[in-house]
Inverse folding.
C-alpha cells in the first residue's frame, strides 16, 4: 500500500448542544486503503462521515482531503448515505446515470452506466422505477450509482445492510476488486465484524460516547480472505473481544 495520506483527521470533536459525540479523534487514511470503522450504535459513525462532507460542521478540529479542506464541488468524493433513497421519478438506469451527470462526467457515460448495472445485477431491470423494486434492489441502484462515478474517495455507511448473504458476498468481493484496481480510497462503516475483517486493510474500533478510537487493527493477510482461516478467526475474535468491553 502506498503511504500517501488521502484523508487526515486532526483532533476532530463534534458536540450537539451538551452532547459530546466525537471526542478529539485523529487518524489518517492512506491512498488506496480500505478502512473499516466499527463502533456501537449511536457512537457517531454517521456523524463522522457527515462532518467529513460538511453536512455538519465540526465543533473543533479539521478533516483534510489531499491536504486541503474538503470541497465536494471540486473533489471526487462519493458518499453512500445510511438512509438513502433512489429518485422515484427516474428509472433504474437514469438513477445510475444521474450520479455521472451531477459530476458532469459525460465521457463514455452509457458504457459506465451499463458496467455499473451489470456489476450489481440490475441490467435487466434498467427500465424499472424504484417503486417496482425490492429493498435490496434499491440498495443496489445506489451502489451502482456510486461505482459508476469512479470516485477517488468512497464513503459507505452500512451499505450492505439489506442484502442477502450471497449478494452481500458478491458485492463485497466486487467492491474490493474495483477499489483495488482503481486505487480508490474507501471509508466503510459496518456493524458486522466479519464484514469488516473480510474487507478492511485496517479496522478502527470506536468506543461508546464520548467517542474515541479504542484500537486500530491492521490486517496484512492476503485477499481474497478465507473466513475459516486461523488468521481471519484470530482477528475476528480480537475485535469481538474489544467490542464486548464497549
Ligand atoms: N443532527 C443531530 N442533532 C442532534 N443530535 C444528533 C444529530 N445527529 C446525530 N446526533 C446524535 O449523535 C450521536 C451519534 O449519532 P450517529 O448517527 O452518528 O450514530 P451512529 O454511530 O452512526 O449510529 P448507528 O450505528 O445507529 O447508525 C447520537 O447520540 C445522535 O442522537
Ligand atoms: Mg449511523
Amino acid at each position: 500500500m502506498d503511504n500517501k495520506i488521502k484523508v487526515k483527521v486532526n483532533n476532530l470533536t463534534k458536540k450537539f448542544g451538551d452532547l459530546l459525540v466525537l471526542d478529539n479523534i485523529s487518524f489518517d487514511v492512506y491512498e488506496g486503503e480500505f478502512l473499516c470503522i466499527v463502533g456501537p450504535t449511536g457512537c457517531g459513525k454517521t456523524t463522522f462521515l457527515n462532518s467529513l462532507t460538511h453536512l455538519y460542521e465540526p465543533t473543533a478540529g479539521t478533516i483534510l482531503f489531499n491536504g486541503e479542506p474538503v470541497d465536494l464541488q471540486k473533489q471526487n468524493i462519493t458518499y453512500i448515505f445510511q438512509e438513502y433513497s433512489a429518485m422515484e421519478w427516474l428509472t433504474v438506469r437514469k438513477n445510475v446515470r444521474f450520479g455521472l451527470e451531477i459530476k458532469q462526467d459525460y465521457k463514455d457515460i452509457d458504457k459506465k452506466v451499463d458496467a455499473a448495472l451489470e456489476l450489481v445485477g440490475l441490467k435487466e431491470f434498467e427500465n424499472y422505477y424504484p417503486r417496482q423494486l425490492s429493498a435490496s434492489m434499491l440498495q443496489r441502484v445506489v451502489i451502482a450509482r456510486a461505482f459508476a462515478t469512479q470516485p477517488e474517495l468512497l464513503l459507505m455507511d452500512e451499505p450492505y445492510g439489506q442484502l442477502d448473504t450471497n449478494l452481500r458476498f458478491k458485492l463485497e468481493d466486487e467492491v474490493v476488486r474495483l477499489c483495488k484496481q482503481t486505487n480508490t480510497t474507501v471509508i466503510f462503516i459496518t456493524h458486522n465484524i466479519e464484514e469488516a475483517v473480510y474487507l478492511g486493510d485496517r479496522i478502527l474500533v470506536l468506543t461508546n460516547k464520548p467517542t474515541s478510537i479504542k484500537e486500530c487493527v491492521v490486517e496484512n493477510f492476503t485477499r481474497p480472505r478465507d473466513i475459516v482461516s486461523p488468521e481471519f478467526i484470530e482477528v475476528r475474535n480480537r475485535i469481538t473481544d474489544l467490542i464486548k468491553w464497549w
